[in-house]
Amino acid sequence: MPDGDRSYLALLQTLMAESSLQNSLRPPNVENELDLLLHLPDAELAQSLPAILSATWVLEYQTQAEALEKRIHDYLASTRPPNAMWTAVSDLLMTPSPTDEVARAQTTLFGWAGILTSLPVAQLEALRPELTRLLHEASAAGRSSLAQYARRYIAYIDNPVPSVPESKLDGLGLRSLDAVTTPDEMKPFVDGLLAWLQDRNWPVYQGCVDHLARFPELCVAPILDVLRRSDDADWESSLIFLVQQHVPTRMWGELRAEFERIAQGATPDELEWEVDGLAMELLQELDLYEARPRRRARPWGPKISS
């Protein structure tokens, strides 16, 4: 292995071992170093997996982090245990009484949507012993989030049915909804998906938007209910963005009265979040849509010459 790669791996190990460094240190030329990490041999990458997942600053570099996430997932998805990467995942999940750094690495393993979340159920089944052990260890240690992840995965392995995300990092819930293909199947989950649009910083936010956008006709009535309550302007702004970007204009008619109410008499909270301006934009778009020239139907039968 090149010396530069070795020094970076050593740095990652140091970051994992020393939490104070982990929260403050930013290595020089980190983007170049992450690019080097992407090209490490599989065995070395697997060996460093806990350190990589524990180094929270790695996730701040989205492009490289996503590429690294994809590489780890693709390797796991295309192979079967035992091999270095599967062993690294297994060892990480089986670590007894984890330190804060190890718990952080375990949480990131679940939180990175593309690693475990996207694996076929049959491959997740291979991790059942590790997940069961983690559930026991995390529960005993009072690490409720980790215990919830383990419990969620075990339940999904046992019964992989569609469900709304149970937490802001529940990529497994989003993945389960891929099986939904009709409006009738999606309808029971719409309210739950809309609820996750209350904060755009939640990791499941965009995935919920994507699922709702598949069936925009189901969104109008529950969005109208939220706008009528006018008690969460941040949520209202997210819902109006959803309407503007993913709901066809021809479906906006039911929302007109609330758009007018917000544009003309917004609450102080709505004014602070500038929801009134958003509502005005949609009203203008709706007015243009409704005023558009309509094609006249051709009279039935042949044209009669005079």
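(ticket continues) Second input and output from the same batch:
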Amino acid sequence: MDQTPFLEIDMEHLKKSNIDKLENFTKQKFNPEAIRESVDELKYKHDIKEVLLTELTNPSDELTRTITKKVYDGVVTQNIIKQFRKIIKTELQHIIQEKLDSTLQTAMEDNEQTGNPEEPIVNNKNKKIITTPEEIEAYHIIKSIASEITDPEDITIRDKQSYCGILFQDNNRYPICRLHFNNPDKLTIGLFDKNTTTKGQSKEDKHVINSINELYEYKEQIHNTVRTYKQLKKQ
């Protein structure tokens, strides 16, 4: 048996991509030969994804050296690698952010043309609760930030009367951020750190923001929270 599984499925948080793969194991589509042929590819895809996520978070010496040699004429010493590692990490994140922004902008333009805007599915059964455009915009920003290190489908929104919650895998035990936007004159966000708890719960650290775009300033905290939850899911 392989030490590394070629496919991992979380039945409590099924993603569309997982469902598509699982269909190959149904009676109607079951084909042992085709599955065997896809095993290696699935395994490599899984491993490549893990490597890329690691490189995006902390570029290795090997990657840093390779890129640095293409732009730096001098001798690539360890100090140079350390210097360029920060630059490469920042630029990799900028590239992803620009791609996400471009995709989001294109989707918004398409929706405006069709007159059928696509909104995120809000897990909310209380008809008295209205998810505002500001909350949806903030959700998209947080989702784009978190998508740099996790699957975009992991980031969900759940609105409540007192705040709008952004969760990891739609689990209220894994809050990423709370949007306290009921008072438009005092927009407040609540961030979470699993290492700081109150009575076993993550402590909410509130910040007043002047505009929704200021959410980008909290990228590091959002990334740290998502990384913590991903690690907890592996335990």
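Agent notes: The longest strand covers residues 187-198. The helical segments are 16-22, 32-57, 61-71, 78-114, 133-146, 219-234. Closing as not reproducible unless the customer responds.
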